[in-house]
Amino acid sequence: MYVERFAAMGTRFELHLFGNADPAVARAARRAIERADDALTIHRPSPVTALNDCLLAGRPCQVDDPLLLDALVEIEAAQGLALGLFDPAADVARPGAGWGAVVFDRQAARVAASLPLAFDFGGFGKGFALDRAGDVLRDAGVASAFLCAGESSIAVIGAHPLGGGWPITIPHPLDPERTLVEFELRDEALSISSTVGAGTDAPERSPMLRPSDGSQVTAARTTVAIDRSGARGEVMSTALLVATDAQAECLLDPAQGRRFRFNFSPEPVMPAHAYEVVLQ
Amino acid sequence: MTDKDFDLTRRAFLDHVLIATAGAGMSAAAPWAASAAAAEPLQRDRVRLGVIGTGDRGRTLIRNILKTRNCAVAAVCDTFEPHLAKGRALVAAGTPAFADHRAMLDAGGLDAVVIATPLDSHAPLALDAFGAGLHVWCEKAMARTIADCSAMVKQSQDSRKVLQIGHQRMFHPTYLAALKRVKAGEIGPVTQIRASWHRNTSWRRPIPPGSTDRKINWRLYRDASAGLMTELATHQLQIGSWFLDAAPTRVIGSGSICFWKDGREVYDHVALVYEYSDGRKFVYTSLLNNARYGCEEQIQGSKGTIEPELGRIYPEVPPKVLALQRMQEDVKRGHKRTIPIGGATWFPELPVTTPGELLGWGEYDETMLQFEGFGEAVRSGKPLPGMLAQAYQASVASLLGEQAMDRGEAMTWPGDLVRV
């Protein structure tokens, strides 16, 4: 058993490796996360800030960083799946800015935009980084591991060290004594997004915006998305949070039971859908 | 300690310096230390030093000079007889002693002078020594005014004589190890250094018979000293510019006589912010009525913090996630329980209390090494590379900080400094 614990992407990471855990493998996974951080951060000079500088100046940009290119490919692929509700280029200060204004030529690794805009990958980066770390661990033969990015993004590798899936519970964000939902994970990632609960009122936290009109989501909600891909899980939990009721119907996919939306607003305009529960 | 023991200690110390200065970026960052430690000073033909000022600090310097392999105290000088007597007692019998520095210079037989006198006398003494064809080692800060600092640098250049200023941390293996780890990127880009020198003392010394308050407590009076800025801060300002690898661009500050209202003229409380390029900052406080936080430089990067006085490095490791800690314990005792996910992701914003990791090399004798380096510089006629530029910058920064506090306005870095 070995634990690698460190700060990256503005949150705390823990990589728990079970069995004959090799610290060097854990450190390699950590470096994969730090490389993703270096590629996607907007808080210091990075490939993303270089890209943003170009796009804000109205110039197209060649993307040389392979991690940034991978991230753009994943975001493009997720657009249809998420009904366009996850948009790293949306900005309340720039009306019209968004993925719809982006021209991404994957083959040529070239990005242009029809109006000035900038990318902020936000929580997507955590899932993306967990995916890279998971690849490193699997390639090294790790059979059982639990990866955590903050306490809202996790990924598990293989089975629980005592056998079976990893049993996960999501506490009620307004009442920690109650459970919101429980399930088991195996070789999956999980992302939680919320407008309520600890930390959501922090002044440094960006508001959750609807890409369509830049409006802020004020409804009291928590969403959960489980996916093989951590990056896609982040996209889906965000999309579920900003979705209208009709959009949420399309995203929830009750047959799979891997996406959840919980409404805590007492208003009658917030009806419960399949896998959508009103809790007061 | 026997000579053999001293040789072993000295060799180990020099090895630490050489190890600390080896590696990428270090030859440019601390060339003076590497060249001082790499030299093999001879015991014969020692450089002859005349020490001007044999008060407490001057006598400490004499003790260190006597440990070197290449320097000797060839004369001592002090205007105050009791201090001169104490200095004379440390050196070989028959060592010439003078009450007037002019007489010492005129007597000849010296290669260099060591100046450990009140700050306002540094520049005139140094200029006299250069005029007499001697090299100069001078305590920090360099001089009472920026103009005098510049004059000292200019005169050393014009006379082609070595001018070395006493910043012993530049030879300190722990500081060199800290810089090496910064250069290696271990704490990420350094964006802020918080430094302090806090004491709980009046800083006022008793006046011995035959002297005066102004002579003994010169640090408390403006004609002779800028107080905390030149006597303490200058050390740490040198560390700031060294680790930020630049001179400040601007300084703002506030100073006051806040606690010791005893007739002193210099501030007993100072707080300053030195701005560097790219928004980087050196935040400084010094005061004389609380010693809780003592003397320290906290060198802060996105991945960690180094505190050289404590000799420790603190990685930015966040606190454990309690739910995952419980998961570990459950697995160890064969108990499978659900893992709660979805709590707060924000760091508790409390000071870190983890012990950090030792930088190593707690024992040091850097004052001795800086004199051995000076001895080699005098012998070769070539100053230790990079050293004077660092010292000049630190002295200018301390005096510019004083101006910012006196005027209550931001002071920009002077554009007319002598090129070193």
UniProtKB/TrEMBL annotation, chain A:
<dbReference type="GO" id="GO:0046872">
    <property type="term" value="F:metal ion binding"/>
</dbReference>
<keyword id="KW-0808">Transferase</keyword>
<feature type="region of interest" description="Disordered">
    <location>
        <begin position="196"/>
        <end position="216"/>
    </location>
</feature>
<keyword id="KW-0460">Magnesium</keyword>
<keyword id="KW-0479">Metal-binding</keyword>
<dbReference type="GO" id="GO:0016740">
    <property type="term" value="F:transferase activity"/>
</dbReference>
<keyword id="KW-0274">FAD</keyword>
<keyword id="KW-0285">Flavoprotein</keyword>
<dbReference type="InterPro" id="IPR024932">
    <property type="entry name" value="ApbE"/>
</dbReference>
<protein>
    <recommendedName>
        <fullName>FAD:protein FMN transferase</fullName>
        <ecNumber>2.7.1.180</ecNumber>
    </recommendedName>
</protein>
<dbReference type="Pfam" id="PF02424">
    <property type="entry name" value="ApbE"/>
</dbReference>
<dbReference type="InterPro" id="IPR003374">
    <property type="entry name" value="ApbE-like_sf"/>
</dbReference>
TrEMBL record, chain B:
<dbReference type="InterPro" id="IPR050463">
    <property type="entry name" value="Gfo/Idh/MocA_oxidrdct_glycsds"/>
</dbReference>
<feature type="domain" description="GFO/IDH/MocA-like oxidoreductase">
    <location>
        <begin position="175"/>
        <end position="307"/>
    </location>
</feature>
<dbReference type="Pfam" id="PF01408">
    <property type="entry name" value="GFO_IDH_MocA"/>
</dbReference>
<protein>
    <submittedName>
        <fullName>Gfo/Idh/MocA family oxidoreductase</fullName>
    </submittedName>
</protein>
<feature type="domain" description="Gfo/Idh/MocA-like oxidoreductase N-terminal">
    <location>
        <begin position="48"/>
        <end position="167"/>
    </location>
</feature>
<dbReference type="GO" id="GO:0000166">
    <property type="term" value="F:nucleotide binding"/>
</dbReference>
<dbReference type="Pfam" id="PF22725">
    <property type="entry name" value="GFO_IDH_MocA_C3"/>
</dbReference>
<dbReference type="InterPro" id="IPR036291">
    <property type="entry name" value="NAD(P)-bd_dom_sf"/>
</dbReference>
<dbReference type="InterPro" id="IPR055170">
    <property type="entry name" value="GFO_IDH_MocA-like_dom"/>
</dbReference>
<dbReference type="InterPro" id="IPR006311">
    <property type="entry name" value="TAT_signal"/>
</dbReference>
<dbReference type="InterPro" id="IPR000683">
    <property type="entry name" value="Gfo/Idh/MocA-like_OxRdtase_N"/>
</dbReference>
